[in-house]
Amino acid sequence: MSNFIQYMFSKKSLVIILVLLLGGSIFFAVQSSGIRREPSNRFERILKLIGEFLEEGHYNPKKIDDDFSKVVFEKFMKNLDSEKSYFLQSDIKEFKKYEARIDDEIHGAQLESFYAINTVYKKRMEEVAALYKEILQKPFDFNVDEKYNDDDDKRTYPKNEAERKEAWRLKLKYYALDRYVDLLEQQEKNKGKEGFEAKTNAQLEKEAREKVLKTFDRMFDRLRNRFKDEDRFNYLVNSITETMDPHTNYLPPLEKIAFDEQMSAGEFFGIGASLQEEDGNIKIASIVAGGAAAKSGEIQVGDFILKVAQGNGEPQDLTGFEVPDAVRLIRGKKDTEVRVTIKKPSGAIKVVSMIREKIDLEENRAKSTIIKGPDNHKIGYIFLPAFYADFQDANGNRCAQDVAKEIIKLKAEGVQGLIIDLRLNGGGSLMETVEMVGLFIEEGPVVQVKSRDEAPTILRDRNKNVLWEGPLTVMVNEFSASASEIFAGAIQDYKRGLVVGSTSTYGKGTVQRNIELDRASWVSNNPSDLGNIKLTLQKFYRVTGASTQLKGVVPDIVLPDQYEYLKMREKDEPTALPWDEIGSAQFKTWKSDFDLNYIVQQSKQRVAQSPAFKQIVEKTNWLSSYDGKHFSLKIDKFRQEKKTLGNTIQAIDSVTKLNTPLDVVNLDADLAVIKGNTNKEERNKLFITRLKNDLHLGETVNIMSDMIQQKLIAQNKQAAKN
């Protein structure tokens, strides 16, 4: 019997779920799999179990064959040596004999590829560890016109040790130049201040090299002493899972324990962001609504943190840091300033200042305001950071209930239209999403959920009551994902309201569940701790039958967006599952009071005449074509490139703020709660200020005003007939 099936029978609560999801296809796969060699060690056991879960449980498994193996091999090489700065071309040529073997090892062959590659990696790492120290002993000449190539995809492995040394020389020179320019700018800034002592260029150059040496000493100390065989093996396993699809991942035991502790502690590092290590760099993995990072509006998932500074102190370079070390720098006392230097996937670099604060759970919940639109139209606005639900407490907070309460308060204040803001909303509870759609439609299907080889299950709103019948718009952007896409898609398919935002939402239409590998161990009386797999088991489909996967939701009205150039949607993942469609569910569309074509045309005219939107298009087009991977190592050119990029980013930031602020006010009921509470007053002030200056919200208010006006015209016509 397969270990996957043993696992199903060992945990009753999951048996029911998996049997319902996967049906008889599992049993067929097991019977046809044949007898395989039993693993001889822990690594082989993990590979065997991962393979079985992928083949027998994944929603849409790719065939694990030689072609699959070659993709895994390339991904593993990239994960292990992303900058092609350790291995030589001769190493890669030797490794090629393993590129079509990994699938055999997954299926039970003796594990050889990892051990062979790992042995060479450790040897090359030690060679480079001696190399960088030698290079950094000599001064760099920043007047020589050289180039540093930071494009991993276009870089090639060095032919020999001499070529590798030259590549490292250029890399270290780039790092030193970056720090040298920082020191120059700092000296220029402090010139004339009391106690200022000017340093020569030679002294500053030496100081810059010393900073780089310290950075790489730390990095190589980590590689030697903390980056173990286990960690490199985990790279291989995740190369396998992520070749199946980008959301299927392997979580090793220690990472799982750390993850659980982090979640239970409820701490998100003082700025409201969780971090992960990637290729020796610190990356933003998620952002908590209401935290300092989210409030800044400048930090997104996928950004890298390059440096951290305490207030006005000197920035600490994070190269080579592990996540816990980075966390210790970012955390601090409440209400103190932390400045982080972030690097966007495009290569753009920004310094973001934030005030550390404890995450208030109220900030993660729905909240509303009233906005006065054109012609004094009274418009309700609801901000929803996530589709949250407290499953531990029957009386706990649930987003559908909270949104319903906000709508009731807004109706009491006489609003004529409603805006639901789902920008940056990464999803959450599916059932809450279904209930929330039900606030705006009569009963009907909301989403279709399909498991492997099974007919789709239709999740329906069964409540005939409609809480809000007036004009409705839903704001989204490229970071609106999963449940946000289900909600926006349902509102669009029912023609219940208009969706407004970037060219599309994120495009995540798949469902994952965490499964413990050790519970699947054949040594049932003494299971080993083998880690977890987060496995893709289902797919979402709209009521029309179209998947939200890959394509996301395309808004009815598209507004130029400052994040478009980042290329961070699901469709930008090379191993993402494809878009497809199934049969449509039966549903009845809403009878609207507005002419969609008219509303769209009015918005297009305003956007075309808006200098701000024109600049966003112009600047983001420049960023899209900007070569942020090749840098001049000649100081005057380097500084000019840095200045041009900084000015472009600053220009985008400035134009996304309205010249004439919106008229935004709190609801009377909310003011009664906020007044007298200093913390609530301060957070509310920041929230209101952000809304007042929001360019995209400003145009959405105009769109809503057009919808209200058309509704009033329709009502007047009907009254005249009567």
Structure keywords:
alpha+beta, 722 residues, disordered N terminus, Pdz3 Domain, 2-enoyl-CoA Hydratase, Chain A, domain 1, 6-stranded antiparallel sheet, 3 domains, 23 helices
Low-confidence stretches: 1-35, 256-269, 521-528
Radius of gyration: 28 Å
Tally of helical runs: 23
Give the total of beta strands.
20
The overall number of domains is 3
CATH homologous superfamily title of the largest domain: 2-enoyl-CoA Hydratase, Chain A, domain 1
CATH fold-level label of the largest domain: 2-enoyl-CoA Hydratase, Chain A, domain 1
Kindly provide the name of the CATH class of the largest domain.
Alpha Beta
Shape: globular
Q: Note the gap between the termini.
A: 74 Å
Q: List the strand order in the largest sheet.
A: 18-15-14-11-10-9-20
Strand content: 5-15%
**Main beta sheet strand tally, sense and closure:** 7 strands, mixed
3D structure, described in words:
The structure is a single chain. Helix 8 (113-135) crosses helix 9 (161-190), helix 8 (113-135) runs antiparallel to helix 10 (201-225) and helix 9 (161-190) crosses helix 10. It is built from 23 helices and 20 strands. It is α+β, with helices and mostly antiparallel strands and 722 residues long. A hairpin with a 5-residue loop joins strand 7 and strand 8. It has a 7-stranded mixed β-sheet with strand order 18-15-14-11-10-9-20, with helices on both faces. Strands 3, 4, 5, 6, 7 and 8 form a 6-stranded antiparallel β-sheet that branches. Strands 2, 12, 13, 16 and 17 form a 5-stranded antiparallel β-sheet that branches. Residues 256-331 form the PDZ domain. This is Carboxyl-terminal processing protease.
